[in-house]
Amino acid sequence: VSSGAGIFEQRETEVALMLDLTGSMNKAATTSTTGESKLDGLKEAASTAVESLLEFDNVRVALAPYSAAINADVEGAGEVSLTNLVSRGESSCVTEREGLTEASDEPFEGDFLGREADNCPSATIRPLTTDSQLLLDDIASYVGDHATAGHLGIAWSYYLLSPQWRAAYDNASQPADYSGDVDKVAILMTDGIFNQAYTGNQDEEVRSPELSRDLCADMKTEKNGNPGITVYAIAFDAPTDSQNLLRDCATPDSDGVQYFYSAATNEELDNAFQSIVANIQRLRLSR
């Protein structure tokens, strides 16, 4: 046991939580008997997950709240607004980039992000940190509004964990290199259809899911012989199309580990997050 504990303490783990803050989250789950909103359930489940994750050494957590866009109006490297670094724009609303790098973690300097959106979530992203109170305060402030640009939530889960984006963040939030000694984990969550995009195919309900699948595939790909990003996904009171999308995004189930979850109620959402946290901890022990 002591040997296992030693291995456990040595491994670095970085976790990015992609959290749906769209307007539909203000409603109760379809089968709810309490009337509590899905957003209230998410706040409770995500807060508990953060507290559980940060009970252990060498764990950092990032948040990627999203709706119709991503709000990246936080301090980036060199005390410069992260929005200005990655999009060269004044608006805090950040959208996808175009071209060959749209579904990759290529550095932002080579292909800046767009800023076409008019509607931003009030919640900003939170780069990797060990400060549990900072994360909990963020989560407590969340409100739901606007449509669902799920591919942007996925993209920022990627960017927050990718060492190729290290130059965007201050020292304490910089992702580690891809390595067999580092576990990088994205937890993706939505309750609705991905229906908002700004480039490419004008059918947004085709474009956002299409780009989401491409981003997920790239996240999971090996990086120069090192593991990519492990992807867990939770479809929360979500339609069949969204469940299928997140099932495709998730790492395939293996060795008794479940990576895709379908949650119908706030209680099931909390159970899904806790199961994922337990899996992350178990894998840290076994490697």
Description of the structure:
This protein is of the alpha/beta class. The protein has 8 helices and 8 strands. The strands form 2 sheets. A 6-stranded mixed β-sheet has the order 5-2-1-6-7-8, with helices on both faces. β1 (12-20), α2 and β2 (59-66) form a beta-alpha-beta unit. α2 (38-53) runs parallel beside α8. The longest helix has 21 residues, at 266-286. Residues 1-8 have low confidence and may be disordered.
The SSE order reads: HEHEEHEEHHEHEHEH
Structural class: alpha/beta
Tally of strands: 8
Spatial order of the strands forming the largest sheet: 5-2-1-6-7-8
User: Which sheet architecture does the biggest sheet show?
Assistant: 6 strands, mixed
Distance between the first and last residues' Cα: 14 Å
Rounded average pLDDT: 93
If helices are DSSP runs of H or I spanning 4 or more residues, what is the number of helices? 8
Beta-strand level of the residues, as a percent range? Answer: 15-25%
Residue stretches low in confidence (pLDDT < 50, at least 5 long) are: 1-8
C-alpha Rg, in Å?
Answer: 17 Å
Percentage of residues assigned to helices: 25-40%
What best-fitting shape do the alpha-carbon axes yield?
Answer: globular
